[in-house]
Structure formats: structure tokens, C-alpha cells
Amino acid sequence: MPDVAAVVVSLPERVDLLGEAIVSVWAQTRHPDDLVIGVDYSRRGEVWNQHRLLDATDCEWVAFLHDDDVWEPEHLANAEKHFDTADVIVSDFTSPGRDWDIPKHWGQWDRLLVTNWFPPSAVVVRRSVFGQWQEPPQPPPYDWVDWSNWRRCYTQGARFAYTGKATMQYRFGAWGNGSWQPRIS
After folding, report:
1. Domain at 4-174, CATH from 3.90.550.10, 3.40.720.10, 3.40.1110.10, 3.40.50.1820
2. Contact call for residues 90 and 122 (beta carbons, < 8 A)
3. What string of pLDDT tens digits covers the 185 residues of the chain?
4. Main-chain dihedrals φ then ψ at residue 81, nearest 5 degrees
């Protein structure tokens, strides 16, 4: 069975969120073979943090998780079903706290050339195909780190797969005292 690393990135003021993210990793029915966590105390940025975490593991597959997101218990198990046929595996997700839905283009991977519709925490990727995170050619809001890297994988011939299941929460909400609180409408 191929090995999988859970790679969790965080910011220092979000310790409560980080705890929730880690609990969701521990709750996986298919446990990761490695867990690397990086808190960016020096504020050097997401790409720097991701690089050092990727360098800290040698697993064949990498599953990204941001501290403000959580995985459902079947996230890694559902991704694993596609290990033989894909390089980039993307799960569907829910967006609690968000007032509007993100338009999704499952199976239309060429749409990555013009838009992105999934967050890093929804992705499990073959490390040999992904390599390292790269800065986007243009700064946000014209380009984003994750979109730039998924687009790079697509244009270099990576095989994408959609799990067909919502196995992560891409959370949005009010940031009161440093902990995430869902907005109820």
C-alpha cells in the first residue's frame, strides 16, 4: 500500500483551529503514514511553510490540510481508491459559514486554465508529480498559490481524479477571539 503524509500548515494565532484540524487527521479511517505540522511563526508565507513540510517527509502521496479546514473520517480512504489511476485526487467539500456556493467543474480539468474551484485541503497528490509548491506568476487576486500549482500539474500532464464525495470542510466564518465560529443564516 502506498504511503501518505498528512501535511498541516498553520498560523500561530490559530491554535484552536490547528487542534481541530489535527483531530480530523487522527479520526481518519485510513490513517496517514506520516504527519508533519508547520506553524509559520516567522510569517515567511505559505509556500515557504509547505516547502519545509514536504522536505520533512518522504511519503509517496501528500495530503494537504490548512488549519482552518477539517477532513471527514473517510477523506484519505476515498482518495486511496484512485491511487492506481491518478496523480492528483480531489474530493468534494462543504463550505460551512459561506453564504454562497463555489461553482464546481468536476471532471472538466481543463477549466483549471481559467479558474480554480477547490482548496488545497481537498487534494491528495503524488509527490513525484507535484514536486514543490511554487509561487504564482502573478500575485493575488490575479492568481493564487494553490490554483497556480494545480494548473501547473494539469499542463504538465498529471492525471486528475474526482472522488465524488464531500470529505472535507472548507470553513469560512467569523473570527472573533481567534477561534472559528460558524455563521448561522
Report:
1. 3.90.550.10
2. yes
3. 789 999 999 999 888 899 999 999 999 999 999 999 999 999 998 889 999 999 999 999 999 999 999 999 999 999 999 999 999 999 999 988 777 677 889 999 999 999 998 999 999 999 999 988 888 888 776 788 899 999 999 999 999 999 999 999 998 643 434 444 443 32
4. -65, -15
